[in-house]
Structure formats: structure tokens, C-alpha cells
Predict the structure.
Amino acid sequence: MKITFADLWRPSGTIDRATYALVGLVGFALKHNLDRLLSFYGFHRRWELFNYWVPVRDVARITDLRSKEAGFLETMVTLALPFIWVGVVLTMKRLRSARLPPQLVALFFVPFLNLLFFLVLCLLPERELPLTEQKAKWPQRPYLTQILPEGALGSAAVALLITVPVGLGMVLLGVRMLMNYGWGLFVALPFTIGFAAALIYGMRQPRSLGGCVGVACLATALLGLGLLALAFEGIACLIMAMPIALPLAVFGAACGYLVQRRRWFHEGGPAFLSVLLIFVPGVQWTEHVVAPLPSNFVVRSAIDVHAPPERVWQHVIAFSEIPPPTEWLFRVGIAYPIRAEMLGRGPGAERDCVFSTGAFVEPIDVWDAPHRLRFSVTSNPAPMQEWTPYSHIAPPHLHGFLVSNGGQFLLTPLPNGWTRLEGTTWYRHGLWPSAYWRWWSDAIIHRIHLRVLKHIREEAENNAPAGSESRSARQQVEVSSQPGMPVR
């Protein structure tokens, strides 16, 4: 099929798949090299393929752009405008020749998904309208509906083949490119995957609610396995995400079940599906631009120790190595404390609390022996060691998303000569929905507190004077937690 230069700018007409592929590849090669030349010689910076998704790094908000970076982006956008117009025009022509709804052109603007969209359009053959439909603008039944298998098993397989790769691309966009662990990843994505899987499953003909829910849950599970196989995430994080992801996928499947039974859906299903798939990248990009501030929380835990404050204090400022953990939480990879070392005495001294993933560096702010030890935290190790089939992975959430700001030990003398030992941690995390992830972080920090507090109690009571009450005969001590309290 011959194409003239003027055809690149006129949205009318059609184009075959070979011409579409050739012009698309040549146009991308031309644009990429122009971008590289302009970026290097005009702004003295490198331009690579991933810069099309993240053109400027280390900028959370558009308002944070410096004048030089803003000028760079304005220039690159101006250069891209004619290429964008040509891409939209050719995509409209190609959709028309393949008898697909024109609304699918919206996928041209969806990161990562547009690459799959381009490949599909390069493979789909041209389709002539039947004589009975030549006067109609679109056929009675969309092309996507026609190519779906009749059987439920085949439709389910197509639904999985579409939603799982798309879900992986959305995770890559949100986590690797935009550095978001928020509503787009943990809420919008599982809901959309469940919704889309049910829609595709029921596009050929309406399916049962149980079938829609089953396909949605299977798509979500396969997405998790894909993240594990591609070294995006480890087992522990996937386990923590499942309690929120699976119910949302089921809810999405229920919505898809209701929609796929409507008559209008069987005429405009592909367009509706394309709009739905744009939803997740839209939420992720909005989060990246808005960049909400991380939430701050406090966790307090306390136990009673059968020893006076003076003796307990000696084991608070530094304690010996704690035996290996038996709790399942630590055995699946969550970082756990091993020992504490004190360098110096008094305010300004440094306390190093060694964890299984590294050491917290804790400069002492308050040294009120034997009552209160308060410290800030200037260095945080990774909060966990991921369980993974690979030797090592480093997801972005292991660095900077769960951070301890400071801590405190408070020793309160009790009337019976015992000591109430209370540990406090002030921390922040950049995970959303914060209420859900705070439930996990509070529980983890509380278990860390108890591991340290119980070890201090053992050390203090083992050093008790001869003739004191044995631990086997003492009364049950109190173990309490007050997570999620507001920070003052």
C-alpha cells in the first residue's frame, strides 16, 4: 500500500499493517535519535529509552522543577508534538482497517501498554466490511468479540493472557519508573485486573458470577507469581499484599459480572475495556505528581521486669546477642534485632542496634539514668530480607519507604520493687492506603519491641541477687501495645 507524506497528517482513510509497522518503526528511530542529539548537544544530558516514561529523575512534583529542567521538558514536548499527531493519525487509520473501535486510540498514550497495542495492530489483518454492512460505520459485533473462543475455558485463557501481562506492565510503571507504592498499585490495580478479567471472560457471552470471580482471582494470583518470577517482589511482600488485593479483585469481578450482562457492553466492550485499563496508569501518575507526604506513627510496648531500674538500665543501653528468633514473622524475612552496642556515655553518645539486615545508628538525645533513654535514628537498614528464588533482589520499597525517626526506653519503678519497661518507636512509611499498611508495620514493630524487651528482662532477672523470687514463681507480667498513636 502506497502512502504519501500528506497521508501522515490526514486522519481519514485506512492503512495496512505492514505500512503501519514500517512507518511506526522508522518514525520512532527518527524521533529517538533527534531526542538524543537535542538532549546531548542542547542540554548536556543523556537520553535513553526509559526517559520516555521518566524524563527527569529525582523530581516528585512538577512544581519542584527548576527553570533549566522545565525548559528541557518544554523543548522535548514541543519536538514530540508532530510525532504524536502522526502516531494518532496512523493508529486511527489502522483501527479503521482492522474494524476496531476508534476509541482504542486512547491506548496510544498508555505507557508500556502502548507497546503491546502497537504490536497487536501490526499483527491484525485488514478486514473488509460485508456487503450488508458496507454502509454501516462499524460492524454489529466488535472484532475482539469475534476472535474470542466460544467456550468458557478459552475465554478465560484469553482473559488471563491479556490481563496478566498488562498488570505486570502497570506494576513496572508504578514501582520501577514512578516509585509509587500507593493507591494505584494496591487498590486500583487489583480492582482493575479483576474487572478487566471478568469483562473479557464474559465478552463473547454472559458468564456466571462464580466464573467471573474465579478468573479474576486466578489473574491476580498469576500476576503475583509473575512478579516473583521476574524478581520484582519477594514472597513475604506478596503475602502481605494479598489480603487487600484479593478482595478488591473479587469486587472488580462482581462489577465486571454486572457490566458484561448489559446489552450495550457487547457493542462497545473494547472501548469500555480500553478506558478501564487507562485508569491505573492515571492514578499512578497522579500520585507521582502529587507525591503525598509519608505518614508518621508511633508504637509503644511495655513489660514488667522483676528487677530495680538501676539494674535494668545497664541492659537497656547495650544488650548481648539475642538467640535466633522462633517467631514466623522474623523467619520469613522481616528484619529482627540481634544486639545493641553503646559508644560513649551521655547525650551525644552513639548506640548501634544491630539487626539481621544491618545496623540502626542511634545518636543519644536524652540520657536520664536510670529512667529515660531517648535517641534519634540517622541510618536505617532494610526492613526485611525478601524470600525469593533468586540470590538477591532489591525492590524499591526496601529503601526509604519504612523509616524509623527515633526511639525511647522509659523505666518506671513499681511499688513492689519491679520496673515497668516501655519501648517506643516513632516511624514513618510511604505506603498507601496507610491504614492498611500501618496495621502491618505496627504489628511488626511491636514484635521487634517484645523481642528486645523480653531479652532485657531475661538479662536483668538472671543477674538478680541470691535469695530473690524465682522467675518460675513470679506472677504473670503485663505485655501491652499501643500502636498507631498520634505523634506529638
